[in-house]
Design goal:
6-stranded mixed β-sheet; alpha/beta; single chain
Length: 282
């Protein structure tokens, strides 16, 4: 019995240590994203994908996160929502704004709203006004063009209704994300362009692809919070077990979606990550 007690104590200690480490670890996940429609001018371009910082910081004034981002030497940066948590005190915003101040010194930075920004309109307006002054490009059902070596790609940011995330019935009866709904927000997709769609919510991937997105960047699921060997992410923010899209690269017809496990929130066997995507033709 004494040995069993010691074993349980040791198991509890190592489990707690693992949670502590993974909850503070920051990984740089480097991938190559191939797409036959990518314009030649974007061959080798590096996209830095960040998401879901919430109320977390990495070092004083996010110094560790800034150093990691700078070392990636990106050509463009996408932040796909939930920079803040819905009830976060504004006194914690300074570290976030300093992060974006440093990021905009590297290259163009694009930002879209997550559900937590939409849950608190006052804080959302406050931080978006600050981000705009720093030169961050905020896309709310809007598009912009990115130019490189004589070619261009079209970047569109989707802001669906908050009812896609939560309703008066909690997580029941969520507004579905369909191709028709996406088109009602963004208009018809210009398929002559190479289209990158930024959408916080990954669960509309099929609709995004049918609308015409060649490449999608998303977050929201925090990697499934707890990641289990062979099974992947355990839980979505909507309290759904084993959600379909939590972390990594997904495919639908000719479209691809990159889902970041994000930076903030509690996590087990699921380190915070920044994703560096090198674009290539093929």
């Amino acid at each position: 019995m004494k040995n069993l007690t010691k074993l349980l104590i040791a198991a509890g200690f190592f489990a707690s240590a693992g949670i502590y480490i993974h909850d503070r670890q920051l990984d740089v996940h480097r991938i190559t994203v191939r797409h036959e429609r990518l314009p030649e001018g974007f061959e080798g371009a590096r996209v830095l994908h960040l998401s879901d910082l919430h109320s977390k910081t990495f070092g004083e004034m996010n110094g560790n996160l800034i150093s990691s981002c700078e070392a990636c030497k990106p050509d463009i940066i996408f932040f796909t929502g939930d920079l803040i948590s819905k009830n976060e005190n504004r006194s914690f915003f300074d570290a976030k704004l300093y992060l974006f101040e440093r990021l905009t010194a590297i290259c163009d930075v694009y930002f879209i709203l997550g559900n937590h920004e939409q849950y608190n309109p006052e804080n959302c307006k406050y931080i978006c006004d600050k981000l705009k002054k720093l030169g961050v490009k905020i896309l709310k059902n809007e598009s912009d063009f990115v130019y490189r070596n004589g070619d261009r790609i079209k970047v569109t940011g989707l802001r669906p209704s908050v009812k896609c995330y939560r309703t008066n019935n909690g997580y029941a009866d969520l507004l579905p994300i369909t191709e028709e709904y996406v088109e009602s927000l963004l208009g018809e997709c210009d398929r002559d362009e190479f289209n990158i769609l930024l959408s916080h919510n990954p669960f509309g991937f099929e609709a995004y692809a049918e609308w015409g997105a060649d490449l999608v960047f998303s977050g929201h699921c925090h990697g499934g919070i707890i990641r289990l060997p062979l099974l992947g992410g355990l839980l979505s923010p909507e309290r759904r077990f084993f959600p379909k899209y939590t972390k990594g690269t997904y495919f639908y017809d000719s479209s691809k979606m990159i889902v970041s496990a994000g930076l903030g929130k509690f996590r087990v066997n699921n380190p915070a990550e920044i994703v560096v995507c090198t674009l290539t033709r093929g």
